Amino acid sequence: MQILSTALSRIKPSQTNFASDRARRLKAEGRDIVSVTSGEPDFDTPDNIRASANAAIGRGLTKYSPVAGIPELRQAIVRKFKRDNGLDYDTSQIIVSTGGKQVIANAMLATVDPGDEVIVPAPYWVSYPELVLLCGGAPVAVTTDAMDGYKLRPEALEAAITPRTKWLILNSPSNPSGAAYSRDDLKALAEVLKRHPRVWILTDDIYEHLVYGDFDFATLAQVEPELYERTLTVNGVSKAYAMTGWRIGYAGGPPRLIKAMETIQSQLTSGACSVSQWAAVEALDGPQDFLADRRKAFERRRDLVVSMLNQAPGIQCQTPAGAFYVYPSCAKVLGKQTPDGRLIASDEDFVLALLESEGVALVHGSAFGCGPNFRLSYAASTDVLGEACRRIQRFCASLRQA
Questions:
Q1: Are strands 117-122 and 374-377 parallel, antiparallel or unpaired?
Q2: Does a cis peptide bond (omega within 30 degrees of 0) precede residue 173?
Q3: Residue ranges of the chain that CATH labels 3.40.640.10
Q4: What is the Cα–Cα distance from 233 to 188, expressed in whole angstroms?
């Protein structure tokens, strides 16, 4: 008897989670593994945030929470959007979910019908197309170019829009490429979107505070107020505040859409963890000065990784503007062989052979819809990153033409 749904047949497991789990299994088996797969800061959650969680427990704030989030957190999110992004929301326009991924899933489940198209610039975070497919929609991957910094061009967006387009998902800074859209970039995309009023926009700003140099972060509804009424601005506390395991994401958007997402969430999970929500209040309302120090640390790690990878034969690595990933090309090593005769025919072959030979765990670029590349997360210590890069250099130097 068939018990599995057809929806399950449309999606596949997360490749980033799979790569991280594989690295953990190999470590547990005693292998010498250096894993740079995970998009998780190695810093601890700040003390004041942890203290706020402990205080919430001490006050007995451990009961079920409202589906859309405790009022105190929704108010803190309203203040955050105004302070950081110049966006005015009411608490009725805010939803809190169990991580940013649930926010996005809620939005897709609430709006996407079979056959609806959702434009997703590639390389993309692996869950975007899968969540669209889960709803019966059609993800439309628009491949970007390294020469454009892996950013979606206005003409490419225009060409991708059809009568069935429901959403554009825009992630800046990007996972996996680290690409970040400037105000001018966003204005150019906004001009296209203004010509297509039926297209909604989901902006995933989860890496907002992780931009480097003199880059000035902006989000689409801020740059073009005309798009405010059809933009869902998604964010969370996981990356900047090192709160991945606390599982708090949030969004601001039109009240009708937020209410629909709340209805979906009421049947899936109900409200997010109450203690985590109180911690998130402190994260958003508390001291923000530590963010600058962590940005500097990530920027130093980025520069180290880019320099060392560009010294690996056949690897070309751009310097990303944000997030904590690099997305190097390994095109020049394709067609080569390992010393034991293993052919490197794809970026997945490269990643698997590197893991077998040198014990470095990466995620292959084709998992993100654009290759031949690989993603390396520099959300790890300098020692770990240096060791990973030295092993990659050694592996690449060992390859020979087939």
A1: unpaired
A2: yes
A3: 62-285
A4: 18
Contacts of 176 (CB under 8 A, 6+ apart): 123, 125, 325, 327, 363, 365, 368, 375
pLDDT in tens, 131-142: 999 999 999 999
Q: What is the mean pLDDT of residues 207-218?
A: 98
Q: Are strands 249-252 and 231-236 parallel, antiparallel or unpaired?
A: antiparallel
CATH of 62-285, one of 3.40.50.300, 3.40.640.10, 3.90.180.10, 3.90.220.20: 3.40.640.10
Q: How many contiguous H segments (helices) and E segments (strands) does the chain have? A: 14, 14
Give the neighbor-by-neighbor strand order of the sheet with 374-377: 325-326, 374-377, 363-364
Contact of 243 with 45, CB cutoff 8 Å:
yes
pLDDT in tens, 140-198: 999 999 999 999 999 999 999 999 999 999 999 999 999 999 999 999 999 999 999 99
CB half-sphere exposure, 59, CA atoms < 13 A:
10
Tell the burial category of 19 from Cβ atoms under 10 Å away from its Cβ (0-12, 13-18, 19+): buried
Q: Which residues contact 382 (CB under 8 A, 6 or more apart)?
A: 300, 301, 304
User: Under a CB-based contact definition with an 8 Å cutoff, are residues 111 and 257 in contact?
Assistant: yes
The two beta strands, 94-97 and 200-204, are unpaired
- Whole-angstrom Cα distance, residue 225 to residue 190? 10
At which residue do the structure tokens 């020692």 appear? 383
Give the mean pLDDT of 107-130: 97
Give me the architecture of the 6-44+290-401 domain, per CATH. Answer: Alpha-Beta Complex (3.90)
pLDDT at res. 1 = 60
In this prediction, residues 17-38 reach a mean pLDDT of 84
Q: How many CB atoms lie within 10 A of CB 55?
A: 14
Residues whose CB is less than 8 angstroms from the CB of residue 172 and which lie 6 or more positions away in sequence, other chains included? 179, 180, 181, 203, 204, 205, 207, 217, 219, 322
Tokens of 250: 């949030």
